[in-house]
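Appendix B. Chain record.
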Amino acid sequence: MPARRDNVTLPIPASVDATLDLLASQDYVADRRLATAVFLALKLGRPLFLEGEAGVGKTEVAKALAQALGRKLLRLQCYEGLDVASAVYEWNYPRQMIEIRLAEAAGGMERGELAHDIFTTRFLLRRPLLEALSPQEGASPVLLIDELDRTDEPFEAYLLEVLSDFQVTIPELGTIRAARPPIVVVTSNRTREIHDAIKRRCLYHWVDYPDARTELAIVQRKRPQASASLAREVVAFTQRLRAMDLFKAPGVAETLDWAEALVALDRVALDPQTVADTIGVLLKYQDDVGALTPDVAARLVDEVKAEGVRL
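Structure tokens predicted for this chain:
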């Protein structure tokens, strides 16, 4: 698929193969099952729910789609305590107060008429969800609802209307429904279970850790400055770490960070000392770092040297 030209919105892909090419144009290496889920979500106009461990590339799907299709990306980063004012809309109270003061100074305006005038769209501050449902111009955007598992259940309940009917209800204005529904990608790291009602409104796909060959292809695309031999050793070592009993196995994001760090250090191959010096790029918990003793690191490096060339 040809690269997208700036300021040009492309149509959605016509097949699974075209979807694979679309993602590949943004250096996103997807397997056929993921590409099928993305294609169906685009074709059917359904939200796509991506679940999996942190760092496996869920968020990157939305970014790749927005860039490849020439759509605006609207990202709602979820967190505990996220509310409607931060996610959907709130009223511009300072401007409303100024309007009230000006009206009072001018006189001649009834209280009911004034209340009606200040609750109009020109005083409305649009947050990601409302902005996605009422784009000002151009094609509908890509809406990324990232790490939904970090929010509270009441916010999940609020999302049901958005995900099923692509609309929100504002008491002062009524129901605002998207004329052109956005492309919606919802992600979860599964730190808690998401309610079935959310999943029923979406097409679901579990994004797993990639196999060694796929991960090597990702490293070669994303970190081309790493030599072929170093890329193979990095991938082989990371794959072995995931087989260990760790609190948090490294994701693809950590693999890419590690390859970049090793290139910055002018390393062309792994050795136990280099692993010890840079292990904080791969592992983020002290217990996991402690489990990788010098003996274990040396053994893994030896295995990588012997088997990494097979990738």
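Further analysis of this model is presented in Appendix C.
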